[in-house]
């Protein structure tokens, strides 16, 4: 009489049970235990019921509120989402022991979208700087989940011409992205705003345009802006110092990713647009030269603007985001046409 065959399920179950018992004994012997961490996402959501969703991914050491200016130019009905990435803002936990590589950040974003938008539902991605790197790689890895991609001065592209910030890092070893002193932070803000002149000699006479911008400065207002700049720089420097271990870990994990987006551009299937400030002092605009060979990717250089495109030119960014949404719906085929906006404009767009 032939013995009944053992099912593959039974064999697999027994093997797993044996392995688990063995691993449990090893863990006990070493005094280690299995732990899990649940990420509590903090994010902006306009709670629109629209089937069209735009997801904004911020850059390094930034946060979700950096997108408020652009959101202000986007009229309904699209749903707008802007999360704090792990290691940033109010998303918890924030730990120097986490993995902040691009691959890990992409997987984090996938989890976030599964929970907030739903599985297998495509979205329109917008990313700035490091967020542009993450958004672009996400689009390359999960093309079925992306309807369009708008990248603002994205990281992950090699620079034919070194930016001042990169040159400082390579020539002196000083990484302004790790700024924890007032002077270093003022220098970083200077470069971020692409101010003319030399930051070391003049940095105390400028301020971030995200907070103050006055073309007709009086001596009194000049002093106020200088004091405000020192206050803001001191605030940012302390914030960075308080989270120095996390900042250092993020930079360490991101360091090998200098050309990761460039290497994956060919894998992006969704309509893609790259916007770059002509005066970017952090990620040089010459990066655009390495994007041009991908003819299906549109590139636009925004004159007179540095790395802070979302803050300095939100109306331009919003106009192009709308164009990308329309293009993905085959309603707009000429990407050279640009919406004409005023500072108080709302952009109206319509979907099927």
TrEMBL record:
Residues 53-308 form the AB hydrolase-1 domain. GO terms for cellular component: membrane. Signal peptide: none annotated. Pfam families: Abhydrolase_1 (PF00561). Transmembrane segments: none annotated. SUPFAM superfamilies: alpha/beta-Hydrolases (SSF53474). It comes from the Eukaryota. This is AB hydrolase-1 domain-containing protein. It comes from Aphanomyces astaci.
């Amino acid at each position: 009489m032939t013995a009944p065959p053992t099912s593959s399920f039974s064999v697999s179950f027994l093997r797993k049970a044996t392995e688990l018992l063995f691993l449990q004994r090893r863990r006990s012997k070493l005094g280690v235990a299995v732990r899990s961490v649940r990420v509590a996402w903090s994010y902006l959501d306009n709670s629109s019921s629209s089937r069209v969703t735009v997801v904004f991914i911020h850059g390094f050491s930034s946060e979700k509120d950096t997108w408020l200016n652009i959101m202000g130019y986007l009229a309904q009905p699209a749903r707008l989402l802007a999360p704090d990435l792990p290691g940033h803002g109010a998303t918890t936990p924030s730990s120097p022991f986490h993995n902040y590589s691009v691959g890990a950040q992409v997987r984090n974003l996938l989890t976030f979208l599964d929970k907030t938008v739903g599985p297998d539902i495509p979205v329109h991605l917008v990313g700035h700087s490091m967020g542009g790197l993450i958004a672009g790689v996400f689009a390359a890895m999960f093309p079925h989940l992306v309807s369009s991609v708008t990248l603002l001065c994205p990281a992950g592209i090699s620079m034919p011409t070194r930016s001042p910030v990169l040159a400082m890092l390579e020539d002196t070893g000083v990484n302004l992205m790790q700024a924890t002193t007032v002077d270093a932070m003022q220098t970083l803000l200077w470069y971020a705003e692409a101010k003319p002149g030399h930051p070391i000699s003049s940095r105390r006479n400028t301020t971030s345009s995200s907070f103050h911008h006055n073309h007709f400065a009086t001596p009194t207002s000049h002093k106020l802006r200088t004091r405000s700049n020192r206050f803001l720089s001191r605030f940012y420097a302390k914030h960075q110092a308080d989270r120095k271990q996390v900042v250092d870990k993020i930079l360490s994990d991101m360091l090998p990713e200098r050309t990761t987006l460039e290497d994956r551009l060919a894998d992006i299937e969704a309509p893609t647009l790259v916007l770059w400030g002509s005066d970017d002092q952090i990620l040089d605009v010459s990066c655009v030269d390495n994007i041009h060979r991908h003819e299906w990717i549109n590139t636009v250089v925004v004159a007179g603007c540095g790395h802070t495109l979302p803050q300095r030119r939100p109306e331009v960014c919003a106009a192009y985001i709308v164009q990308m949404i329309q293009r993905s719906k085959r309603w707009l085929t000429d990407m050279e046409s640009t919406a004409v906006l005023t500072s108080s404009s709302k952009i109206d767009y319509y979907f099927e």
